[in-house]
Amino acid sequence: MQTSTHEIADRIYRFSTCVPDAAPGGFTFNQFLIDADEPLLFHTGPRRMYPLVSQAVARIVPLERLRWITFGHVEADECGAMNEFLAAAPRAEVAHGAVGCMVSLDDLCDRPPRKLADGEVIDLGGRRVRHIDTPHVPHNWEARVLFEESTGTLFCGDLFTHAGNGPALTDGDIVGPALAAEELFHATALSPVTGSTIRRLAALEPRTLALMHGSSTHTRCAESLRLLADAYDLMVGKV
Ligand SMILES: [Fe+2]
Ligand SMILES: [Fe+2]
Q: How far apart are CA 59 and CA 20, in angstroms?
């Protein structure tokens, strides 16, 4: 396996590792780095991927400069290597919503995590990231996303998950492939609030969607979020 690096927005880097057997056509695990005065990592990758991911990150910023370790929710691919990163970066803190800290991270993190209120902003120096709670969307009680305000980048985690090893950025449709992957994996915790939660993200009018599994995009971001919300509403029997 190899990890590729691509700058998807100004000083925002995507690291991508394709696992060939995880899905038909392969399945990518992507992490993102915001290179600011206080560099922030979104997703750590699983522990076993730490050598690959940490080497890729270190080509952009020295690991010891990392200040924030963040992720969408508590699963191995999102945060399995968080303690390895905390060990490599003495000033780094995990930052997550209150629920995630209370339920899991206060115990799992080797150093105490920073608890964020819904809507709270961290000023990275040159970049500002807003923490947004999205309970159970796409799954897990502690689920959240991050929105970087100056570039309009929404780090949307597992939303729009799709299989294959496509380009870092696509102009193509990301909703159809996401719904195909939903049929394959059934990964989304479909509920009466799924659609409305995703529509709140569309209202941010993001200019980039940074996906954890699949290609990121600069095109039709809010429209794709609304189409995804509509499709999930139909699936839960709400029209
Ligand atoms: Fe997940
Ligand atoms: Fe994931």
A: 24
Per-residue pLDDT of 92-135, as tens digits, reads 999 999 999 999 999 999 999 999 999 999 999 989 999 999 99
User: Cα of 78 to ligand 2 centre, how many Å?
Assistant: 6
DSSP 67-121: -EEE-SSSSHHHHTTHHHHHHH-TT-EEEEEHHHIIIIIHHH-SSPPEEE-TT-E
**Nearest ligand (C-alpha, residue 211):** 2
Tokens of 95: 């930052």
Residue 191 has φ and ψ, to the nearest 5°, of -150, 170
Instruction: For residues 13 and 28, give the distance between their C-alpha atoms in angstroms, rounded to a whole number.
Output: 15
> What Å distances lie between residue 178 and 55, 158, 183, 213, CA to CA?
30, 10, 9, 10
Ligand number nearest to the C-alpha of 214: 2
pLDDT at 126: 87
Q: State the distance from the centre of ligand 1 to the C-alpha of 64, rounded, in angstroms.
A: 27
Distance 160 CA to ligand 1 centre (A): 11
- Of 171, 97, 91, 170, whose CA–CA distance to 129 is shortest? 97
The two three-digit tokens of residue 235, written as one number: 């699936």
pLDDT in the model for residue 239: 58
